[in-house]
Design goal:
It contains 11 helices and 13 strands. By secondary structure, it is an alpha/beta fold. Strand 1, helix 1 and strand 2 form a beta-alpha-beta unit. It is globular.
Length: 342
């Protein structure tokens, strides 16, 4: 057990979500006490979240609360009582395309919920807050690979805009209250227990049913697929090294990824973009089926390519993803077949 865990639990918001469950399990396995929170939002079938939670629910190190972080009084009251020392914030309304038609869901979860988290963390005097941002903040940028030095002022969806807002809100709290905060821009995380709205999950369902797969931009799309175990290791390594002020920060030429306060931003991806058509071929091989493709125009909320430059995170915490796409997809397919009995 780490020294910090002796002085209070690690709060994990979204603990029954995809990344949240895996982070919670990893923290428990290394001897941490975890305070888990999730509201079981029905954006996708809550039964999957219930199944994830059931795998860790009886662990003596876990205290779990069904709670909405947008419920200010309940959430701030819980954190005032439990006083977490560190925080991994993964609760959010996810989904780029969903945000086009359901904007208020994103305001409530990603903006109201996030300010509640920041204020509760300030009052609890947390040692380090790590929060989930997204590769979607890069929007229309054509500068590759994406680095945290890039300007991110042209989001393509409200979801992306809320994630950029989170980064700005977190910097303000870090600056005002000397609160160590680190944001991680996740790149297309996949693996067992993944989200049903993600491409890998949707493609698997369709292919097993013999249905055509909708492929946008006629297949000319690339994604930086990042396996869940690599992501979890990066999150925990980051959590263990609280953000510090950048001694070389210059206000004349401010670095977007650091500050004169304890604030940092990093990409967390695989660093090797893969054409979606190649991912489909890999999935088809793992499933043992022939895919049917429905080639469509570009979706208005999507970007053409994501490609993470993760050198800063590697330098800071030794993050080095090493799971090949073929191996990660094979593990996902094995889990999917076992869980759904197909």
């Amino acid at each position: 057990m780490t020294e910090s865990s002796d002085r209070g639990p690690v709060l994990v918001t979204g603990a029954a979500g995809f990344i949240g469950y895996h982070v919670t399990r990893a923290l428990l396995e290394r001897g941490e006490t975890v305070l888990g929170v999730d509201n079981f939002d029905p954006y996708y079938d809550p039964a999957l979240k219930e199944a994830r939670l059931s795998l860790v629910a009886e662990h003596p190190g876990l205290e779990f609360h069904r709670l909405d972080i947008a419920d200010r009084d309940a959430f701030l009251g819980l954190l005032a009582e439990r006083a977490p020392r560190r925080v991994v914030h993964l609760a959010a309304q996810a989904g780029v395309r969903h945000s086009i038609d359901h904007p208020f869901d994103y305001v409530d979860a990603n903006l109201v919920g996030f300010i509640n988290l920041l204020e509760a963390s300030r009052r609890a005097r947390v040692e380090h807050l790590v929060f989930a941002s997204s590769s979607s903040v890069y929007g229309q940028s054509a500068r590759l690979p994406f680095t945290t030095d890039d300007p991110v002022s042209h989001p393509l969806s409200l979801y992306a805009a809320t994630k950029k807002a989170n980064e700005l809100m977190a910097h303000a709290y870090s600056h005002l209250h000397a609160m160590p905060v680190t944001g991680l821009r996740f790149f297309t995380v996949y693996g067992p227990w993944g989200r049903p709205d993600m491409a890998l999950f949707l493609f698997t369902e369709a292919m097993l049913r013999g249905e055509a797969i909708p492929v946008f931009n006629h297949g000319e799309i690339w994604r930086d697929f990042t396996y869940i175990d690599d992501v979890v290791e990066g999150v925990l390594r980051t959590l263990d090294q609280p953000a510090r002020p950048n001694p070389d920060f210059r206000r004349e030429e401010p670095d977007p990824a650091s500050s004169d306060g304890p604030y940092r931003l990093y990409n967390i991806g695989n660093g090797k973009p893969v054409k979606v058509l190649d991912m489909i071929d890999c999935l088809a091989e793992a499933l043992g089926v022939e895919p049917k493709l429905d080639l469509q125009p570009m979706h208005r909320g999507d970007g053409l390519i994501t490609h993470a430059d993760c050198r800063a995170l590697e330098d800071a915490v030794g993050y080095r993803p090493d799971t090949p796409l073929s191996a990660g997809i094979a593990r996902f397919v094995q889990w999917y077949r076992a869980f759904y009995g197909v």
